[in-house]
Amino acid sequence: MKVIVIAAAILAMSAGVASADQALAQKSACLSCHAVDKKVVGPAFKDVAKKYKGDAKAAEHIVGVIKKGGKGVWGPVPMPPHPQVSDENAKKLADWVLSL
Predict the structure, then answer these.
(1) What is the CATH number assigned to the segment(s) 2-99?
(2) What tens digit of pLDDT does each residue of 41-87 get?
């Protein structure tokens, strides 16, 4: 019984983190060009997670793309830089995307 309660608590906490990071993505305007599970202007976040699965430097790379922008990886439309996103929030967003 204790194990079930602990497991439920862990799931509830991780769901809270996931929704908090999705809220951060909304607040940071990420969801203007991206969606979790479908391509909008930019790739679906789940597709990004799939592309970088197992890459130990993926989070660092995604933080760089968030802060400095990028082009050519997902098609002809460049991602503009978002220098106003703090390093801490860029890391939270990168970790969230990679967790999908």
Answers:
(1) 1.10.760.10
(2) 999 999 999 999 999 999 999 999 999 999 999 999 999 999 999 99
Q: What pLDDT does 20 receive?
A: 75
The owner of tokens 């996931």 is 18
Name the residue type at position 15. Answer: A
For the chain, the C-alpha Rg in angstroms (whole number) is 15
Long-range contact pairs involving 4-12 (C-beta distance under 8 Å, separation at least 24): none
**Terminal Cα-to-Cα distance of the chain (whole angstroms):** 29
Q: Which position has the token pair 């939270």?
A: 92
Distances (CA, A) of 44 to 4, 8, 20, 41: 33, 29, 18, 9
Contact 36, 45 (CB under 8 A): yes
What pTM does this model have? 0.81
